[in-house]
Design goal:
10 strands, mainly beta, about 150 residues, globular
Length: about 150
Amino acid sequence: MSIELQPTVFQDVDHSNFWRHRPNLAAPGKSRFGGRGLFALREIATGALIDMACTVQISQEQCLQLDEMHPIGDFYFAHPENPKAGLMAYGMMSFCNHAENANADIRWKRHDSLGWMAMLVALDAISQGEEITYRYKCPLWFSSDE
């Protein structure tokens, strides 16, 4: 028997159904921006939780070291509370490319036992095959031709 999972509408980190039945909504692929990107495997509704990931906190000193290590330094996120620190998210959202008019966003929440959680949420409906992007919240280290 097969079960068709519907996209989980973003609610909260404690939405345990997501962890039990992670929806298979996206996968990495070749991006028009160059390199890899994240693409919708099926239609994704506005507000759907695309991916959720645990993170590891990175100190200011570690961020400075990572900034010199390309491409590894390109894959950490600005810390939501400490602008000098960072978070490394262990999920598919690290494949998301920047777009000024992004179709997704990353929401952050501190969980009592899991630490900081990153949640990739659809801002708009995303078509099957469409690249999932979010607007980077840091100075860009590349030119954005969008």
